[in-house]
Amino acid sequence: MLECSVELTPTPPRVPPDELEKYSSACTLSDMELFVFPDLLYALVLANLMSPKIWAWREEPWFDKVKRLSPYRRILRLRQFIMDHYEFNLDLDTWGLTTQQRELARFRRYMDEATIARSNALFGYEGDRYYFDMDIRRHFGLDKYGREVIPYWKTETVEAMDAFRHKPGYSRGAGECVSLSTLYAAALFIVCGVPLEDIFVMGTPLHSQNFVLVGDGLLTNNRRLVTRAMWFNGTELTRKAQRALRHEQVTMVAHATGWVHCVYREATMDPVQYRRFEAALRRFLHTPITMEILLNFLREARDRQACFQLRHARHGRTLYIPAETVYHYEHNSPYRVSDATREKLLAEIDEDEFCPSPLEDRVLLDDLGPLFQDTAVDPGDAAGVAGLLGRIGCRRFQARQAIEDLIAFARLEPRLPDRSGGPKEWVGGPAVRLHPGMSRDDILRCLATERGRIPTVDLAFHAYRDLAAVDWTPFVKAAVERSPVCVAGARDLSEEEAAQRLMGWPDESIYDGTRCAQPDEVWNYRRGDGFEKALCLAAILLARRPDRQVDLVVGPDRADLKAGAAVWRWPSRKGLRGRIRATLGDSSC
């Protein structure tokens, strides 16, 4: 167990000992920590809101005159900017390894092992039948690890995302799904002027995305966006974007007013805002069955396409073509079977793909229009859907499974966190009140004022890593207990060689001012301020000999690390002043 004393000048409020696990988790932000401590998800959004990095985007030429655009057009420009500047990263080795036993021991006081295993892929979660069939551990690369050794899934701040460009094999920023969703949430507010009240961050066991109340609503999905129209277009890209909501429990929803979690009975979100979110999401995931929706469904349900054919006039002749052939040609065409561009699509297809007479036992899609002339069919009306399909003269397509598949395509009932874990106790509390017209300085002042009232805001300052404004103890705890990358990277180096390796890298922090990087960020990105490098070496030394004591004295322009008779001195430009004395006792990193 970590024994740590920290002396700071000036002295900030101390984090209570029973809160250290949560506050130190704000510095590492792993997938497991976010699940156990739901405050952390929105704390990262607020940390990104404070970051000068995203505010600098507003000066980019790409966003010139963005205020003249409609809200949706602004968001499209933001999407393209994010796609141009960031990659989706799911390299499980990025943040090193831990063990199930170690993490379960950490969280045992907050959540039992069975609950964690049901909700996290690292602890045996397989999802529903979809994920069981696809072998989720192999899909995400977990199969190369044993059931005991597991990778960290750590979430990155925007600074850590940008710093990926310093990592071998990367030419731009990168981040995993939680990093991208919290980046989007902050950027939607800063760049696009979307109120925080209209942004809801959703987490599932394997994914994180935002639901944004703009127009008919939209979902962020890693780097991309999904509109309501796109949700029902039946394409492969959309099908992949639907995986989380179609196949997983929504474990938590975070918002400016609080959070709702599938495990915890207490819910801190404003219930009015939650019901607003729930109603809007259900509308987003529900559409009447029209001719267009039926054709979009066939695009996804390839095994049903063989029931249909299309008609096309060419050179004065009427020709016929299997539906599956036309959908195949869609892949490389801007035109679609399901909209007004169908004839242009058919005109692109080679004539030898057509037949001169109707294909036997196939329904002509061209003749189905009258079925939808009077009204669309509500997918919630199973009898109405069955009646519709009963009028399609194909016994194969009238099968019960086809009816159920069409209903599922047009109406998804999400598994939301208020429907699990028993009735929720809506406790409410003070909300984060920021509006898009505020400057960054206004937001910093407002959040500094709210720290004492709103726990999520206080956690945000720890996620923001400003060591001039927080107790260092959680930061040091995270650094020496959860830095497996630098420990593994220095495994074959002597202590002096590890120190020299660190000294040889640029004296350049990825964080501005008095904000500081964790040791694994220093090692991954091969750079850091002298204080950050000294703390990285301290983590390596304590991992090798947990019983030893290390002393780190930090001044405005230097950091001195002492371990036994060895002393290392580093230049520092962080302007911080403090003293750290730490030992890990009988435990190890």
Tell me what the structure shows:
By secondary structure, this protein is of the alpha+beta class. The protein folds into three domains: 17-286 and 415-464, no CATH class; 291-410, no CATH class; 483-583, no CATH class. Helix content is 40%, strand content 15%. The protein has a six-stranded antiparallel sheet, sandwiched between helices. A hairpin with a 2-residue loop joins strand 13 (308-314) and strand 14. Helix 25 (495-504) packs antiparallel against helix 27.
The amount of beta strand, in percent, is: 5-15%
By secondary-structure content and strand pairing, the structural class works out as alpha+beta
Strand order of the largest sheet: 9-8-7-6-10-11
**Could you say which overall geometry the principal axes of the C-alpha atoms support?**
elongated
Mean pLDDT value: 91
Number of helices: 27
Sheet with the most strands, sense and barrel status:
6 strands, antiparallel
| Uncertain residue ranges | none
Give the fraction of residues assigned to helices: 25-40%
Q: Would you count the extended β strands for me?
A: 20
Question: How many domains, as an integer?
Answer: 3
Spatial extent as radius of gyration: 27 Å
Question: How far apart are the termini?
Answer: 10 Å
Could you give a short description of this structure?
By secondary structure, this protein is of the alpha+beta class.
